[in-house]
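Input sequence (141 aa), recorded before submission:
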Amino acid sequence: MRVKEALSTLKEKGYKYTDKREVILEFFFNEDRYRTAKDLLKHMEPQFKGISFDTIYRNLHLFDQLEILESTELNGEKHFRMKCDKHHHHHFICKECGITKEIHHCPMEDISEQLQNFMIEGHKFEIYGMCPECLEHPPTH
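Predicted structure, C-alpha cell format:
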C-alpha cells in the first residue's frame, strides 16, 4: 500500500489528515519491514518534540484496525509493517531485524480438508527465525 492510498483510506473512514500520520505512514513505507512503536518514536522525536508513546500507539492501533498496517508479535512486543496487498501470501520474519520474505505456499490448502465442517473466517501464517544477514553478522545487544 502506498502512502497516498493509506491517507485516502483514512479520509474515507472519517479520520483527519495530520502531519504525524503522514510521517508514520512514510516511515513504514520506507522501512518495508516489521518495526516497533519504539522504532517509530525514535524516528519521530526529532521532528515532533514531546510526542508521546500514547499518540504513537493510538495511531498504530488505528492503522492496524483499518488494515493499512499489519501487525505481528515478536519477542513479546507488537511489531508493525505496511500492509501487503499485492496477492495472497505469508511471511518468514527475521526475529532480529524484522525483515520479511514472502512465502507463496499457503498451508490452508492442506488444512481446509481437516476442517470441512468448520467456517473459516481468516488465517495468518508466519515463520520466525533469522535472515542470512543476521546469521552472518549477529547484532550485539
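Checked by second reader. The two ends are 32 Å apart (CA to CA).
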